[in-house]
Amino acid sequence: MSDEKAISIESVNSSSPRLEAVSVLVVDGDSACLAILSRMLYNLGYKAVMTAKRAYDALSIAQKKEDELHLVLTEAHLPDMDKYELLEKMKAVSKVPVVIMSDDDDENAMLGGLFKGAVFYFVKPLTINSLKNLWQFAIIKNRNHVVIDFTEEESSVYAESQQENTSNEGLERDSFMTRDRWLERKNPEGTYKDEERENSDSTSQKKPKLVWTNELHKRFLLAVRLLGVDSAHPKKILQHMNVPGLRKENVSSHLQKYRLSLKREQEAIMKARARGPKKSNFPSHQSLSTLNFRGGCSHTLNRYSTSTAYQPKRRSHVQDLSSHMSRPSPAGSVCFPSQVYSSGHPTLGNESSFTSMPYHSNYKNGQPTLNNQLDYTNDHNTNHIGNRITSNKELAGFRQVGSFVRYSNFDGNKTFSTFGDHGHSNLVDFPIFLHNSTQQEEQQQKQLQPQVLFSPPLQMPSPPPQPKEQQQNDILGQERQLQPQFLPSAPLQMPSPSPLPAAAEQQGEQDDIFGLESQLMQSPQWHMPSMPAAPTAHEQEKDDPFGIESEETDDLFDIAKGTTQHFND
DNA sequence: ACCTTAATAT
DNA sequence: GATATTAAGG
């Protein structure tokens, strides 16, 4: 009965990947790479995978096929042109989003690419999983049949409280705007099951269940932080998050959960503390903040305690490690939010600068489940150095970058402008693991094994419109220089089934969004965000794949995971 | 009009 | 289990 409905929405993913509607142009001076990449893409189902070995060719193709090309995936080092030049020229010629891939994980390089308009920056090697998610960057304005269309054209729906967004000088059009309630107002009941059709007409959509990925959650948190206690309310948060398709209800729901967890956290911490204050590697600031907060949720929103403050019961040694690991990338160590705050909130003063969010989604009987995080970190760092890491890293990278998103339209007050300078700490490090870690695996993958993987469709979201990079860019205008602009990588996640155990072996996906966060944004001092991500998931439950050995499942970081549906056969 | 909570549905 | 939705009360 009612199941049908639920399923229907989700069924989209399983039944209609429509990746075939995404045409990609792969550019790489190396024939072998080109061949491998295009083959991977092809195997994944992308349509019309074109290739070019030189930037000029790429530009030429892009220009000629502006309407058919949805995405350009290019090596950063092409023989005839550097990536910046390519980005610029490409921009002049087409709106097609450009994703850069490079061996260079140098932050400057990455940021530079993003600043120049790339929508994403992959540090090689790329894996199938990363490619699988490529479509998210595609803009497809399909006409005839199709599909993905993230761009959301017309619905530029009003800007609720927007104000400026319009002027943008350089880029193309921008159309973000929260059109949240636009959808929400839509039919309350009509939802039968018709979503099977992916025809683009927007009407008739049922609100798909949104998966709060880390990225989304990060945005959420950032918004909350920026807003400050007083205004961390759904509507505002929503505006600040600026995620197309995200509705206020979503935020409210998440906020509710978030607060709840904060509360619990606090309680847990307090208890722990009461018993025996043992650890505080840190200065006390966090502790204090922690205290401030007790049960009351609402007012404390912005001063989260540091996760560090409370230790996960799980492995203690981890801590130690963590302190070691702090080898953030150059720019990396900075503390992130503080600056931001200063900009305008009296309330928040810098005092509580960082704030990390202690929230974990999993609690076991009252115990916070922080565990993974630390380990994680740890592990990954290691990996950073060169180690084993299982898989999923690509996604992680993906996610991270994405998360970086620049928040563009804000209503003005607080800004993120500052963000660009120091703020990018997060950003910066991400790709690292992306890169070292999996090499082996990737290599293997590259060898390709088309057969196995991907027969099943990937996750395609039907409805969630993807914001284009452009839209936001402009807003920044001047600031733009500071910040990388790039689009929110994945707005809403739609569930993705694909059961390929092979590829995703261990995904421990889960969403600990909250937990993760703490790790990522955690203390200003060391933040080593590297974490792998879980590949798309499937309905399978993942309970701790490794259990024993590496308990670190990646729960924290999944990017896309299957959500709901279990299409029960 | 919008928020928060709690309860309940999916 | 995570999210959505609803209802009730501010």
UniProtKB/TrEMBL annotation:
Domain HTH myb-type: 204-263
MF (Gene Ontology): DNA binding
Bias type Polar residues, positions: 158-169
Biological process annotations from GO: cytokinin-activated signaling pathway; phosphorelay signal transduction system
Entry's Gene Ontology cellular component terms: nucleus
Biased composition (Pro residues): 458-467
One Pfam family, short name: Response_reg
Keyword Transcription regulation part of the UniProt annotation: yes
Chain ranges of the Response regulatory domain: 23-139
Residue span of region Disordered: 158-208, 454-473, 488-569
Domain of life: Eukaryota
Keyword Nucleus applies: yes
Gene3D superfamilies given in the database record: 3.40.50.2300, Homeodomain-like (1.10.10.60)
Compartments in which it is found: Nucleus
Record field: compositional bias (Basic and acidic residues): 170-200
Keywords: Activator, Nucleus, Phosphoprotein, Transcription, Transcription regulation, Two-component regulatory system
NCBIfam families per the UniProt record, alphabetical: myb_SHAQKYF
Official protein name in the record: Response regulatory domain-containing protein
Lineage: Eukaryota, Viridiplantae, Streptophyta, Embryophyta, Tracheophyta
